[in-house]
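Severity: low
Component: inverse-folding endpoint
Summary: output formatting inconsistent between runs
Steps to reproduce: submit the following structure tokens with default settings.
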């Protein structure tokens, strides 16, 4: 297995930390509190006051210091206690709380639990053109593997998003090919043409090509291209909060210049809200069903078909194994 603790993970949108309130987050089972210090830098500490273990995220930020809600001890971004109300505090310079590397990148707040020399930078969206974008965020009870597969799997859309993305009775023969990336895997589809789903008919004309890609540690991205270049790029960063619970930050980007950005945000937020809810529902139903059978002692492996273009490779990437599918592997299918 790859060690997810050695990667940067996004825990919040930058705008969520703007108001001076601390934010409670969990990363790989570790409860954290995020806040901004007096210089505006983002900071991440264990969400546990060393005094009586109250959650610091229930407190407030005062002059860039985090104040515990119980007795008001105050902490700096490096975890040092800087005030104990009711007594004069001797400065020790020794942190009482663990602090973690924290930074803003690509509009999100990122934390790494165990940085090392080989830690890759926060994963950026694959955008070359000028785009309008906005963020959507949610939590889902499922694994990283399940969410990444779901997001990149075109063959559930005819059922889970019937009419919204595709229709089962309006399939098209397409050519799909799978390509290795430096840190992941990509599926490319060609021959799709005009789409039957509502979202596509609003956003696209003829589709020239589309891509679904997964990159470590947990970025799932779909890209639709038309005659004039990029039509839609949705980048979903999947952050494992704990066993079976994910936080998702989705960045929805469209080519700028066609419609005003606020108008696109207004209707795309609603449309993608529906899609996210539909995916969340099927993912949580699936997780619940897996748990029922596990409890009954009837756990079983999932069964892959040839249409699971990326799922087995995502499993191998997360396990730190070599990909078995060949670079450039191609098939015809009905999407
Ligand atoms: S528990 Fe935090 S100050 Fe007492
Ligand atoms: Fe979906």
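Observed output (run 2 of 3):
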């Amino acid at each position: 297995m790859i060690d997810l603790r050695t990667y940067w993970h996004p825990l919040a949108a930058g705008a969520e930390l703007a108001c001076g309130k601390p934010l409670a987050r969990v990363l790989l089972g570790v409860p954290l509190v995020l806040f901004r210090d007096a210089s505006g830098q983002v900071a991440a500490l264990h969400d546990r006051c060393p005094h009586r273990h109250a959650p610091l995220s229930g407190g407030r930020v005062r002059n860039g210091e985090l104040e515990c809600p119980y007795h008001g001890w105050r902490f700096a971004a490096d975890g040092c206690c800087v005030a104990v109300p009711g007594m004069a505090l001797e400065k020790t310079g020794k942190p009482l709380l663990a602090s973690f590397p924290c930074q803003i990148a690509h509009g999100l707040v990122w934390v790494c639990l165990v940085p090392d020399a080989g830690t890759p930078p926060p994963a950026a969206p694959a955008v070359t053109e000028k785009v309008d974008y906005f963020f959507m965020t949610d939590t889902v009870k499922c694994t990283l593997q399940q969410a990444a597969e779901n997001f990149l799997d075109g063959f559930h859309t005819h059922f889970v998003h019937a009419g919204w993305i595709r229709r089962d009775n309006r399939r098209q023969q397409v050519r799909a090919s799978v390509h290795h990336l430096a840190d992941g895997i990509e599926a490319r589809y060609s021959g799709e043409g005009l789409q039957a789903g509502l979202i596509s008919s609003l956003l696209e004309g003829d589709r020239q090509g589309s891509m679904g890609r997964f990159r470590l540690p947990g970025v799932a991205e779909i890209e639709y291209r038309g005659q004039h270049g990029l039509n839609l790029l949705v980048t979903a960063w999947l952050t494992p909060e704990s066993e079976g619970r994910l936080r998702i930050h989705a960045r929805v980007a469209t080519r700028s210049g066609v419609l005003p950005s606020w108008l696109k945000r207004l209707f795309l937020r609603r449309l993608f809200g529906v899609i996210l809810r539909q995916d969340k529902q099927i993912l949580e139903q699936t997780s619940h069903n897996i748990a029922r059978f596990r409890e009954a002692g009837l756990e079983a492996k999932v069964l892959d078909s040839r249409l699971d273009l990326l799922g087995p490779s995502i499993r191998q990437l997360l396990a730190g194994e070599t990909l078995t599918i060949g670079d450039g592997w191609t098939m015809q299918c009905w999407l």
